Amino acid sequence: MPELPEVETVRRGLEPVLVGNAFARVEQRRPDLRFPLPARFSERLTGRAIESLDRRAKYLLARLDDGQVLIMHLGMTGRFIVDTPGGGTNTSGGFVHGQDAASKHEHIVFHLGDGATVRYSDVRRFGIMDLVPSATLDSHALFKGLGIEPLGEGLNAAWLAAKLKGKTAPIKAALLDQRLIAGLGNIYVCEALHRAGIAPLKRAGLLATKTGRPTEKTTALVQSIKSVLNDALRSGGSSLRDYRRTDGGLGYFQHSFRTYGREGEPCLGDACDGTVRRIVQGGRSTFYCPICQK
Fold first, then answer.
1. What is the mean pLDDT of residues 9-31?
2. Which of 39, 126, 219, 256 is the most exposed place for a label (fewest CB within 10 A)?
């Protein structure tokens, strides 16, 4: 499943195609994705102009001129294929399962006012699309209770320490809790913890003093979260089995992984002679170095 850098890369690729354009016609080829599509979905979108394309956590938000918001989530295998008026084609989100039968899995086609089309393909149909009033977005079931955005100014060492104070859960589990920080996923949490030199099993509350103030490790962790996400964005995200960036090419941050997927390989930390280990936490693989992560 794509994490924040991959979703943001897709957003940046779709933004120049969608924003300032309008839905001339919408083809809805099935009644549902992961959940049923909204009633009169095609009818309600037809004629609407797209004023902006935002991201919240791992969701894309197309804000329309009638005050509605089109919510889009790629799920595990979702991708957008853009056909430009001049005949060019590129893939946004590029999950490439079943490429030889892509049209079979194209469930929604947006025909835009300038002649471009955006086709949504999803082999496993774990994606989501919904249409809600902007005023009710924060109370929507998908967004109610979502935590802070990791790349925003609100995520700082003082804020994180106050939130972690007294928590007995492992720090990796705490960071993956979307109610705390929205959009962080398994890959980038592993990488951020390694950069900060923090063991994934460390009790989260130890990153705060008894009075809830940040420690040096808290400051290092915040810096590492932001740096690893920004580095991944500059690389177009990480391509493991199936993700492709907006131009159809592969993201390449996976070549910069220090721990993720590197079980049994040498640690890439400065002057560290450790070996990367893999454990399972909450049903997910955790990769870390037992020497430099304490």
1. 95
2. 39
Task: Please state the pTM of the whole predicted model.
Answer: 0.87
3 flagged as catalytic:
yes
Question: Would you say 192 and 7 are in contact if contact means Cβ atoms under 8 Å apart?
Answer: no
User: Active site includes 56?
Assistant: no
Catalytic, out of 58, 63, 119, 167: 58
Structural domain boundaries in the chain: 4-139, 157-288
* Whole-number Å distance between alpha carbons of 22 and 46: 8
| Residue 158 one-letter amino acid | A
- Told to judge if 241 belongs to the known catalytic residues of this protein, a careful annotator would answer no
CA-wise closest residue to 22 among 59, 64, 68, 61: 64
4-139 fold: N-terminal domain of MutM-like DNA repair proteins (3.20.190)
Kindly state the average pLDDT of the residues 8-31: 94
- Which residue in 202, 203, 277, 284 is the catalytic one? 284
Asked if 30 is an active-site residue, the reply is no
Q: Catalytic: which of 2, 170, 200, 214?
A: 2
